[in-house]
Amino acid sequence: MVDGDVPERMQAAAFDEFGGPEVITLRILPVPEIAADEVLIKVWSAGVGVWDVYERQGVLVPEGAAFPIVPGSDAAGTVAAVGNQVSNVAVGDLVYVSAANHPKGGFYAEYAATKAKYVAKLPDGVSVEHAGAMPTDALTALAGLDALGLPAGAWLLIFGASGGQGHLAVQLAKRQGLNVIAVASGADGVALVTRLGADVSLDGHGDIVELLALIRDAAPTGVNGILAMAGGETLDRLSEALSNDGAVAFAHGVQPEPKKRPGVTVRAYDGEANPRQTQRLNELIEAGPFVVHIAETFPLGKVTEAHRRLQTSYLGKLLLTVS
């Protein structure tokens, strides 16, 4: 089924060669056609993440993609058309999507085609305006919590808690009944994670000895797990606060990777977009208001500026508005 208002051509941000932010430019491209198991999304907003940089640089390119390449792995919008094998969404549904593999083009465009398995209906509790920045980081945060597998009532330390993945992990962890110690970046980061429900909020720029003392005051027998969205010496020192059977889970791509030491399990994780995980994510989101903190919003025509902003420090996420 197809929405009768779908045009033949669309505005998109794309590149014809790999390189820096300057290679992405606006152009007019054909609206992609969909296969039987695909969905056409009318994009309202698209997230801007480091994975888009890797795509732009030629490090992570969707299999089968050809120039001009439209980047973008996250989006929210409405369903404009569905293939005849699609049953999980219908034309007109508000949806979000996380699709690292998008050979027909990503979501820096007015329309994008994607496999239906990557698409989920937008849950109550999060706005469609901000939801485009959520999917990959939220699903990755959920995978990190799964990797640790902590029971309700356990103590979890989130390192990098005010970043894109971290601030979502704080909210998801609280909805799983965990006690959360959030190590954020600066006073603004501490204020953000406190507002999002962290039980203890700490500034990672503080003195490490004082940080460890505050963590041990909150969890005298040690924290049961650490969810690491960043690496480095501070993280390795904070792992001293783990209980004897504690574990560190870190997202693939975190550099330097957390150091291994006796008695501590260290494991990497990746997010996965599939119907089971998106259903779990939606159930957690619908447990209450869910905040996707947007540091800055850019119109599609300012995509180069958005990619330059990725190279700086900010809280939460960056967002492109498309429609």
From TrEMBL:
Q: Which PANTHER family match?
A: QUINONE OXIDOREDUCTASE (PTHR44154:SF1)
Q: What is the protein's name according to its record?
A: Zinc-binding alcohol dehydrogenase family protein
Gene3D superfamilies, alphabetically? Medium-chain alcohol dehydrogenases, catalytic domain, NAD(P)-binding Rossmann-like Domain
Q: Which UniProt keywords apply?
A: NADP
The parts of the chain that form a coiled coil are none
The Enoyl reductase (ER) domain covers which part of the protein? Answer: 19-320
| UniProt xrefs under Pfam families | ADH_N, ADH_zinc_N
Report the domain of life of the source organism: Bacteria
